[in-house]
Each structure stands twice: as C-alpha cells, then as structure tokens.
Specification:
Largest sheet: 5 strands, parallel
Order of helices and strands: EHHEHEEEHEEHEHHH
Strand order of the largest sheet: 2-1-3-6-8
Distance between the termini: 12 Å
Structural class: alpha/beta
Length: 208
Amino acid sequence: MKKMIYGLFFGDSITYGEYDGVFGGWVDILKRYALQQFHEGSNEIILFNLGIGGETTEGLLKRMPHELAARNSAEGNIVFIGYGANDLAIKDGTQLVAPEQFKENIKTAVQHAKQYANDIYLVSILPFSQKVDGVQTPAGKLRTNGDVLVYNQILKDIAADNALHYIDFYAAFVQDKEILLSADGVHPNEKGYGIMAETAIPIIEKYL
C-alpha cells in the first residue's frame, strides 16, 4: 500500500531558498526529487516549504501549531526545523534571541512537532563567510561564526536528548564556505544549495 507522507520544512530564508535563481533552494530540489520518484511506485511524499525570510524561533512558535494542524497527513509526517541564523544576529547590541531562549524555543517547537510527527530533523546553522563574520551589515545586524558553534551545539544537544535527527549542513560547508556562500556571505549560492540537497536526499529516500 502506498502511503502519503508529508514533509514540513520550517525555517528562515535558507529554508525558503533565497538567492537561488536556478534551483529555488535545497527544499525545492528535494520537492522535485520526491515528485519524480513518485512515479516509481513508491510512497508519495509531499514536501511543504514553510520557510520565511528573516524569521526567528519567536516567529516560528507563533505559527507552528496552526501550520502543523493545516498540513497533516494521517499516514505520517516528517518535520524539519531550521533556525538560528537570525536568532543569533546581534542588533543594537543584543541578540535577537539569546542562546537560553533559543534552547527553550526549539524545545517547545519539538513538542509541537511531536504531536504530529515521529521523525523530527533539526537543521544546523551554516557558517558565515570571512567577510561578514563579526561585521555589521547595512541592515544593522552582526553575526559571528563563534555564535554559530554555540547555537549548533544547542541543536545537537536537543537532538541527542530527544532522539531526534541532526542534519549537519555546517560540516558540509565549513571547509568550502567561501565558494558555497553567495555574495552576501550568509545565504548559500546555487552550488551551496546543491550540496545541501545532496546531503538531504538520502533522508528523503528513507521514506520513498
């Protein structure tokens, strides 16, 4: 019997796929992949890109219960949670969402997800390119790679404590970040999004 499984991707602009005029980002590559595989007679996986540019975990918690309830397959759901690049940004001297609050917010998001999904994936934050590490953007935000490590460790710990999966895009990027990030030093370019999709396709394959 074919099952219909929903994959829900919560996140910020990197989930949404900003700056990728070619493929539309990693989630859209996965979406096309799942659609192509459907004709092979496997399960049907419907992927929803629920990324919103600039969003922090504060915004996630406001909408997550509604989004989950609105897109829920009786036959199974997979939830992906990809936050931190905005949470850790410093604006006017303070982080948008400090580490302790980030930890609580992710834990709460996981509790929401657990009501609908057996499989939950926490997505690592990507490294920033050298030229933006610790440099204030025109929009007045400052991000550091040191903070990326702190917030990723929080995600890793929550994944370990709750038997969740952790997708380590950070490790896939860190050596080659200068060629995988776009000119803004924060978002991946087409090549970077391609690497993310390659890393994530084996995850999607498990459900096909």
